[in-house]
Design a protein that fits this description.
three-stranded antiparallel beta sheet; single chain; mainly beta
């Protein structure tokens, strides 16, 4: 369960959702690249979130991370961007045995690096993430910086890797840009 027993706050006001994750899935499958089958395996992260309310009028979107560490830990982080710059940040550290620990908002530092431009939008697809209480300081990079989803609700999402004090792979979602 993310947040407080599944109750995941999205601001200091009433915005919240119910949110759970299954971050320890192992997947196998086959995909086609240029009509040639390729077997794939790896870690997967499935989550479900539901809410009865939209973002607050001063919230512009979110930046969400799901990270798989080579050491077996998992980390979920998000930043709800607010128009005044006082973003709401939340996170959950998950140990290899599945025990989770909510992180103090004040302990999470998510710093976007130089953005790239896609569809006349500036998107921070590379990040510096630091959590001093975990001795964590990493830089994330996307596998495909141009992973823009030009759907009716346009957003960026795609796989990332990271290095620094810890290493691994993960997923990043950016909305509202």
């Amino acid at each position: 369960m993310q947040g407080d027993n599944g109750y995941s706050r999205k601001s200091l006001r009433e915005q919240a959702s119910y949110y759970y994750s299954q971050p320890f899935l192992k997947v196998t499958g086959r995909i086609a690249i240029d009509d040639k089958p390729v077997d794939v395996t790896g870690p997967a992260w499935m989550d479900r979130e539901w809410s009865s309310q939209p973002l607050a009028s001063d919230q512009t979107g979110w930046d969400w991370f799901a990270l798989h560490f080579t050491s077996g830990e998992k980390l979920m982080l998000y930043r709800m961007r607010q128009s005044d710059g006082n973003h709401y940040v939340s996170g959950n550290w998950i140990s290899p045995d599945g025990a989770s620990r909510p992180l103090a908002t004040s302990d999470i530092r998510m710093t976007p690096k130089t953005p790239i431009e896609i569809e006349r939008r500036k998107l921070p697809v590379e990040w510096q993430v630091a959590i001093p209480s975990l001795s964590l300081s990493i830089e994330t990079v996307p596998l495909n910086p141009r992973a823009w989803m030009g759907t009716s609700f346009a957003y960026w999402e795609g796989p990332i890797s990271f290095h620094g004090s810890h290493s691994g792979v993960g997923y990043l979602e950016l909305t509202g840009y």
